[in-house]
Amino acid sequence: xxxxxxxxxxxxxxxxxxxxxxxxxxxxxxxxxxxxxxxxxxxxxxxxxxxxxxxxxxxxxxxxxxxxxxxxxxxxxxxxxxxxxxxxxxxxxxxxxxxxxxxxxxxxxxxxxxxxxxxxxxxxxxxxxxxxxxxxxxxxxxxxxxxxxxxxxxxxxxxxxxxxxxxxxxxxxxxxxxxxxxxxxxxxxxxxxxxxxxxxxxxxxxxxxxxxxxxxxxxxxxxxxxxxxxxxxxxxxxxxxxxxxxxxxxxxxxxx
Length: 256
Fold this sequence. Notes:
The chain is mainly beta and 256 residues long. It has helices at residues 2-30, 191-194, and strands at 33-41, 45-46, 49-50, 57-65, 70-82, 88-103, 106-118, 126-137, 140-152, 157-169, 175-185, 203-214, 217-226, 247-255.
C-alpha cells in the first residue's frame, strides 16, 4: 500500500503545483501591483490551533492587485505531516478576493480560498469564503471578520468563524501591537472529520502579538490560546489535541 499512497501523494503534489504555478503565471499579465514574501514561524497556528504539528513551518506567498479592487494570491505553507490534515506535507492556499475603501477610513473586503493539501492520506481539500470590514484612524485599526466553509466531507460538516481584531503602530517606534478574538462553530455530519477544525466542538480563540517592522523585514512574537478543554476533545486522528492550548510563537518574514 505504501507505493500506491506515495504515487497518490506525488500526483497531488503535481496537481497542486500546477494550480499555484498557473495562478502565479497569470498574475503579472493582469496585475496593477505585484508582491510576495517568505516567512518562517516556530509553529503555524490558525484560529488558535496548530497546522504544522507544533513544529517550525516555512511559507512563501505571492499576491497580485488586479483592476477594480480585485486581487489574486497564493501561499504555500509547510504542515510537517500534521495529523490534522491527514499527514499532509504542505498546504497551498489559493485566494481570489475583492477590497474597497469606502471613505472615512472604512474598508470592506471579501474572498474565496481553496485549501489544497499536498501529500495527505485521503482527500483533505476544502473551500471557504469570507468577508470583513475595518476602520483605520491614524496608526490604529479595528476590524470584524467572518469566515464560512460550507458543508464538505473533508471537514465533516460546515464551519463558521466570526472574529474581531485590532492593531496599533506605536508612534516613533518600529513596533506594532496586534490583538484578536474569534469563535468557531458549525454543524456536524461526521464527528471524526469535524474535529479537524473544531477539536472540542464550538470554541473561542484569542491572540496578542508584537511585530518589529523595519523595511521589508518583520520580526514577530505572538501568543495564542483557546478555551478547548482536553477532556472534551473528540477521539479523532484529526483532532491534534496536543496543539490546541496556549502557546507563544515567533516568526520572521521578508516581503518584496
